[in-house]
């Protein structure tokens, strides 16, 4: 399976990765080879097999609905680049 | 809209916050209104190395919802990551469910007004699915020039997203569906239903097509409309807008729109490029959720009577008109209040209903209170009705007792005693008053006896006045008839 240069740019954008224009073809080749390896799975007969959601054959444990986490805002915000009035400040995003 | 030419096709996505104490995947509190970020722990903040663990009660509530809409509850469901970048979502993905949601196909019946005032029509709205997910945080754009403030208290609050089939055909139907759904989630105790606080929010998918065509038109999605009235306005606006665009030769673009309550209009959000490329995949931090059939049945056994069933029971068990039953079963607390009163007072079912639906709800409305904060408890109202039943007071005097109870003057017996409101039922005392009234009104007496029957009311009024309303009305009527006869 081969990935086009456009698809590489698209995936990089969605993942917020900056790649140089001259690297695009290089990554397209590498990623296509990875897809080829994974693509071998398509040859397996999966008729009637439940899709695997997790490699461990276990089920989710549940926790009781109890508040266990205290307020430690000051600690958690100590390493934030910018805070004010208890809010994290980030560059303006408008929708 | 020209309803002969165009038909709207509407589907709703409702986000309903589950009423848990802690978040869906961590033990941080979910209480509304806390100071910013005081309920944001490392899991909420998306710190490296943390692991989500599913809240038992959130799962139970999702299952309850499934049972309430008669849906298939999945014995095995899977959490998936939905990826997008926005600062109110620190991990860069929202944990949601995608291919295997907890609740599958179900339905909700809504009641619509019949044509030309006829019998109401029941319409079934399909529910496609409902899945569990975590809420995002809140962004504050106004307060800081050049910056957006982020409060992550809400991030990680458990939600179910309830997706309807595109079975809805008008804004009015959409509102009827939402109200029914809102009532249901509050009834079964999984959501506080507070729309101002965002506990129950709606996105509306709207498209139009020429009547008679099968194919759906291109739809738009209007986001986060948080009142019934706004939903109605937003949908009406969107239907009109789409028809105008198409009739003007344009085409509808599939896009996300925002409703502005100040103008009543919707506008396109700046389109996020490839916004819908969420790259879902199963979350490796969470194992498949298994709810065994026996557990589902155990949850079913804890389900309260649903609003529709209760309404029908009120009609058959108490013989109430459908309207009364509808009002009384509108909220489960109100229905419980009624049942206490009707069972303990000994008054007839319709009388109890009248006192509650007219007098009590009217008074509470004026006071800005609801049935849970009513100054008159079910026992107090029942105590008052008992005194009507045993003829201690008349229905008319009861109105005064009711007012006094509302003002916090105590229960009915205390008030009746303090104000000397005990009804006069003793014939001889009433006869004495009647004789005095007759002596004081010779002209009216003569007119009545010569055939002016209408004057009977005059005498009743005079006797009631003379006894300050305390004479038993039945006795007054009976004795007056005897005395006034020529």
Question: What's the N-to-C terminus distance of chain B?
Answer: 70 Å
Query: Strand portion of chain B, in percent?
Result: 15-25%
Binned, the helix content of chain A reads 25-40%
The gross shape of chain B turns out to be: elongated
Largest sheet of chain B: 8 strands, mixed
Mean pLDDT of chain A: 91
Enzyme class (chain B): ligase
GO biological process, one term (chain B): glutaminyl-tRNAGln biosynthesis via transamidation
Protein name (chain B): Aspartyl/glutamyl-tRNA(Asn/Gln) amidotransferase subunit B
Catalytic activity (chain B): L-aspartyl-tRNA(Asn) + L-glutamine + ATP + H2O = L-asparaginyl-tRNA(Asn) + L-glutamate + ADP + phosphate + 2 H(+); L-glutamyl-tRNA(Gln) + L-glutamine + ATP + H2O = L-glutaminyl-tRNA(Gln) + L-glutamate + ADP + phosphate + H(+)
Describe this structure in words.
The complex is a heterodimer of chains A (95) and B (486). In chain A, 33% of the residues lie in helices and 9% in strands. Chain A is α+β, with helices and mostly antiparallel strands. With 486 residues, chain B is α+β, with helices and mostly antiparallel strands. Chain B has three domains: 6-295, no CATH class; 305-419, no CATH class; 427-484, Arc Repressor Mutant, subunit A, CATH 1.10.10. Helix content of chain B is 39%, strand content 19%. Chain B contains 15 helices and 16 strands. Chain B has helices spanning 56-68, 171-187, 228-247, 293-301, 307-318, 322-328, 332-345, 349-367, 378-389, 395-406, 412-419, 427-440, 442-449, 456-466, 473-484; strands at 6-17, 54-55, 76-77, 79-83, 93-97, 106-112, 121-134, 138-140, 147-151, 158-164, 200-210, 220-225, 256-260, 265-268, 281-282, 289-290. An eight-stranded mixed sheet of chain B has the order 6-7-10-1-11-12-13-14. In chain B, strands 5-4-15 form a three-stranded antiparallel sheet, with no helix packed on it. In chain B, strand 13 (256-260) and strand 14 (265-268) form a beta hairpin. In chain B, helix 12 (427-440) packs across helix 14 and helix 12 packs across helix 15 (473-484). The longest helix of chain B is centred in the middle third of the chain and has 20 residues, at 228-247. Chain B is elongated. The N and C termini of chain B lie far apart (70 Å). The mean pLDDT of chain B is 92. The interface between A and B is large, with 38 and 57 residues. Chain B: Residues 336-484 form the Asn/Gln amidotransferase domain.
């Amino acid at each position: 399976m081969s990935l086009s240069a456009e698809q590489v740019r698209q995936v990089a954008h969605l993942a917020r990765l900056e790649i140089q224009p001259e690297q695009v073809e290089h990554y397209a080749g590498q990623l296509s080879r990875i897809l080829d390896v994974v693509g071998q799975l398509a040859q397996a007969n999966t008729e009637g097999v439940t899709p695997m959601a997790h490699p461990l054959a276990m089920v989710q444990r549940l926790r009781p609905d109890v508040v266990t986490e205290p307020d430690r805002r000051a600690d958690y915000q100590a390493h934030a680049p910018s805070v004010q009035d208890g809010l994290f400040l980030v560059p303006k995003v408008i929708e | 809209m020209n309803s002969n030419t165009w038909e709207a096709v509407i589907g709703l996505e409702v986000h309903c916050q589950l009423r848990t104490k802690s978040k869906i995947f961590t033990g941080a509190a979910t209480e509304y209104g806390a100071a910013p970020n005081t309920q944001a722990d490392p899991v909420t903040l998306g710190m490296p190395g943390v692991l989500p663990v599913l809240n038992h009660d959130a799962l139970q509530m999702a299952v309850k919802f499934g049972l309430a809409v008669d849906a298939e509850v999945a014995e095995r469901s899977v959490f998936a990551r939905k990826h997008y970048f926005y600062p109110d979502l620190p991990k860069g993905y929202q944990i949601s469910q995608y291919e295997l949601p907890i609740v599958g196909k179900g339905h909700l019946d809504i009641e619509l007004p019949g044509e030309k005032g006829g019998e109401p029509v029941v319409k079934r709205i399909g529910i496609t699915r409902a899945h569990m997910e975590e809420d995002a945080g809140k962004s504050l754009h106004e307060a800081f020039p050049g910056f957006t403030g982020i409060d992550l208290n809400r991030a990680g609050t458990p939600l179910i997203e309830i997706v309807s089939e595109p079975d809805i055909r008008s804004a009015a139907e959409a509102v009827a569906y939402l109200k029914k759904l809102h009532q249901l989630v509050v009834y079964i105790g999984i959501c506080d239903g507070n729309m101002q606080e965002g506990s129950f929010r709606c996105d509306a998918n709207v498209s139009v097509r020429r009547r008679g065509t099968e194919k759906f038109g291109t739809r738009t999605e209007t986001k986060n409309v948080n009142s019934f009235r706004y939903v109605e306005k937003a949908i009406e606006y969107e239907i009109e807008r789409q028809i105008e665009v198409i009739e003007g030769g344009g085409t509808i673009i599939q896009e996300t729109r925002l409703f502005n309550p100040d103008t009543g209009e919707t506008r396109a959000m700046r389109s996020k490029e490839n916004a819908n490329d969420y790259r879902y995949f199963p979350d490796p931090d969470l194992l498949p959720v298994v709810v065994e059939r026996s557990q589902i049945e155990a949850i079913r056994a804890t389900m309260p009577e649903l609003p529709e069933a209760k309404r029908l029971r009120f009609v058959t068990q108490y013989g109430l008109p459908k309207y009364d039953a509808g009002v009384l079963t509108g909220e489960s607390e109100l229905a419980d209040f009624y049942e206490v009163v009707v069972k303990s007072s000994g008054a007839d079912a319709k009388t109890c209903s009248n006192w509650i639906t007219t007098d009590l709800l009217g008074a509470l409305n004026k006071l800005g209170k609801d049935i849970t904060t009513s100054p008159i408890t079910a026992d107090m109202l029942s105590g008052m009705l008992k005194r009507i039943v045993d003829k201690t007071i008349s229905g008319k005097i009861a109105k005064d007792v009711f007012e006094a109870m509302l003002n916090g003057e105590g229960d009915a017996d205390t008030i009746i005693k303090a104000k000397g409101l005990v009804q006069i039922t003793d014939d001889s005392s009433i006869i004495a008053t009647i004789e005095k009234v007759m002596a004081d009104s010779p002209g009216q007496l003569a007119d009545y006896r010569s055939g002016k029957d209408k004057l009977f009311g005059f005498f009743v009024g005079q006797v009631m006045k003379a006894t300050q309303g305390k004479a038993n009305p039945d006795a007054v009527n009976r004795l007056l008839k005897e005395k006034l006869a020529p």
